[in-house]
Amino acid sequence: MAYNRLFEIDLNEMRILESALQMKLSSLSKERYLLQESECSMAIDDEIKKIREFLGSIHNQKFWYRPKDKIYVSG
Q: What is the DSSP-derived secondary structure letter of residue 64?
């Protein structure tokens, strides 16, 4: 049995996914803050790293809108 390599996720579903990951990241960060250096904190650090990398991957795959007919100023 092989994995499905093609997913169809609409923009609303992507927002839900990103929001859930941000909430999980926030929860793990708070939990990590309360722990001293230990085996548990290392596992949390690893999960935090994986979530950040995945959120970065999502961010890097987005197409960002910039008007082509006028000067773009961000912010």
A: P
Cα end-to-end span (Å), the chain: 47
User: What residues does each domain of the chain span?
Assistant: 15-59
- Residue 39 is predicted with a pLDDT of 65
- Structure confidence at residue 24 (pLDDT): 97
Q: What gap in Å lies between CA 45 and CA 50, rounded to an integer?
A: 9
Alpha-carbon separation of residue 67 from 38, 73, 74, 75 (angstroms): 50, 10, 11, 14
CB atoms inside a 10 Å sphere around CB 25: 16
Dihedral, CA of residue 51, residue 57, residue 62 and residue 67, to nearest 10: 100
